[in-house]
Write a structure and sequence with these properties.
By secondary structure, this protein is an alpha+beta fold. It has one domain (about 5-80). The chain has helices spanning about 10-25, 30-35, 55-60, and strands at about 40-45, 65-70, 75-80. Strands 1-3-2 form a 3-stranded antiparallel sheet. The longest helix is centred in the N-terminal third of the chain and has 17 residues, at about 10-25. The chain is globular. The termini are far apart.
C-alpha cells in the first residue's frame, strides 16, 4: 500500500513510531507513548543499533509492564503490557 493513500490516523501513527523508538534509547517513559501507538513488542537484535546508543535490555526489563518473552544468542523480545 502506498503510504500517502493511508488514512490519516494510520499515517500519523506510522510517522510517530520511529521518533518514539529513538527516544526510548534514553527515556523509558516513552514506553507509554509506544503502547498508545499500538506497539506491543520490542525486538533487540544481536548486532545492536548502529545508528545510536541502542536499547538497554536491563533497563527496559525492570520497567513495570515490560516482560522479557524471549532471549537467546543476543536476541531479545520484550512484551509491553
Amino acid at each position: 500500500m502506498l503510504l500517502n493513500l493511508a488514512p490519516t490516523p494510520y499515517l500519523e501513527n506510522h510517522l510517530a513510531m520511529p521518533s518514539a523508538e529513538e527516544r526510548l534509547e534514553t527515556d523509558l517513559t516513552v514506553l507509554a507513548d509506544l503502547h498508545a501507538l499500538g506497539v506491543r513488542y520490542i525486538y533487540i537484535g544481536a548486532r545492536g543499533d548502529f545508528a545510536g546508543l541502542g536499547l538497554n535490555l536491563a533497563g527496559l526489563s525492570e520497567v513495570p509492564g515490560v516482560n522479557v518473552l524471549y532471549q537467546q544468542d543476543g536476541v531479545s523480545i520484550l512484551g509491553i503490557h
